[in-house]
Every structure is written in structure tokens, then in C-alpha cells.
Amino acid sequence: MKAKIVKIISNQYTVVDENNQRHIAIAMGKLRLGDSPVVGDNVIVEERDSKMTIKKILPRKNYMVRPLIANVDQALIVMSAKDPEFSATLVDRLIFLIVNAKIKPLICITKMDLSDESINIYIEDYRSSGYHVILIDKDNTDHDLADILKDKITVLTGQSGVGKSTLLNKLNPEFNLKTQKISKALGRGKHTTRHCELHEVCGGLVGDTPGFSSLDFSEMSVEDLRESVLDFKDYADKCRFRNCLHQNEPGCKVKEAVLNKEVSSIRYNNYLDILKLIQERKEKY
Asked: What one-character-per-residue DSSP string does 228-263 give?
């Protein structure tokens, strides 16, 4: 029968079958020699001698290495307005990585009760660029978020200490994920999530994952990066050159749109920073 892997600890796989029943399964040896099963995988399982065995991994629609998870529908980038400070640079880098993995990015800003009006510049920038932005404070959890999570596999990403686990606790009081207060000495939180697991939240599955800590662009080409900026999609095809990187090329419609304030200068400058990073790496090797 078909099942989905929702948790992995060592060589034990927790799977949920089509009747929403949970089982502990092991993987057949030949599976471990090839592509190992990961959280989010749809699999074929079989019961033998009172033991559940994973026989086959079904085709994946996407696959992320960091965090190690498959078949993700959307990624919720959770950032705080304050403590730690909101970083558009970090949000944009996460957006580029998420879109490159063929996953839809969403933005959730927590601790709005601690913010001043300066955060509104970024909120308007993302919303006017077509990104879905959800706002959370200590007393209110946006009801829109529950609708967004329903029937989807969602991963939560972002800095430590921004309230990812606290947010999940509010959405589903039935479980209590371990949380820690911000480390004032470091100005950032300590990692509290030790493994990748999918939790049932608001009719969907949510992964509170310890990934994206290094923001690794080492496997991304300049072409991959260019295609990962959603803000460019209405202008890139109109550039003079088909392979335009929107950097120094003449007749670039993306640069023109930035000057005309039709494309976010914040996103564009963050794109240029990563583009330069990838180009310098290519020259080095």
C-alpha cells in the first residue's frame, strides 16, 4: 500500500498510510544502497512477519538537500520584525534557493508587536512584488495562515529565534515543540530542532526543519539564479539578449524596470550580490 514518510530517526521510518494510520517501518537493503528514503517521500510499504517494510520510493516532484525533504509544496520563510532584526537580504537569499528547488515561497513576519514603522517598507515591497506576506504578533495568529497550510506540505525556514516552533505550537496546541528564548549574548536563537519531521497542522503537514543554516549557493549556476528571481519574470523575455543576466548588458529590460521602480531594487541588489558570488567562484575554479 501507499504511505508517506513523516519522520526519520536513525534507521526507523514513521509512515502514514492512506487510512491515516501510523506505522514504524524499515527500508529494504537495496533502497539504502540507492536513493535513501527521506521525509516527505511517498512510498510503497508491505507488512511481513508483523513488520512494515518500505519496498519502493515513488517519483519525487522535488527534492531538497538542506533541509533533507521531498515533495514540498511551499516554504514558509519565518522572520521576526525584531529580536532578531528583520533581514531582507536573508529573506531574498532564501527565496532564491526555494524557487530554485521548484517550491513556492511564502513570507511570515513574527513579533510585529515589537516593530516600528520601518518594517512596513519591506512588507509593502514584498506584497507589491507579488509575494504572500503573513503578519503575526504575540496575541494574534493570522487565520489566513491556517488556510494556506491546508492540504499542503510546508517547510518552515528562517533564522533561529524568530518563533518557528512557537508558531507551530499556536497553530496546533496538541503538541508542544521545544522552544528556547533568544540568546541575548549572541543576538540570535539557539537551534532547538534536532531532526526533520512533518507535523499535522491545520489539515496539512508542516516540517519544522533545521535547514538553510549555511545558505549554500555552491551548486547553483548563474542561469539557475537568474530563473529563481520571480520579480524578473515579466521583463526577462524582453531583454535584447536571450542569455541576459541583468547585470551590465545593454538593452536589459529588468534593469530598466528597476530604474522605473517596477521591479524591487532591494531584490535586484540582493540578486547582484549572489550573482557576483557565483561568478567569482566560477573564476576561481
From this structure: T-GGGTTTGGGSSSTT--SSS-TT-HHHHHHHTTSS
Q: Which of 62, 66, 65 is closest to 41 using CA atoms?
A: 62
Taken in order of first residue, the domains within the chain and their CATH numbers are 2-59 (2.40.50.140), 64-208 (3.40.50.300), 222-284 (1.10.40.50)
Model confidence pLDDT, tens digit, residues 150-181: 999 998 887 777 777 777 777 777 656 544 44
Q: Answer whether 63's CB lies under 8 Å from 30's CB.
A: no
CB atoms within 10 A of CB 66: 16
Cell digits for 39?
A: 521525509
Residue 225, Cβ density class (10 Å: 0-12 exposed, 13-18 middle, ≥19 buried): buried
- pTM (2 decimals)? 0.84
For residue 238, the one-letter residue type is: K
Q: Exposure string (b/e) for 170-205, b if CB count within 10 Å is 16 or more?
A: ebbeeeebeeeebeeeeebbeeebeebbbbebbebb
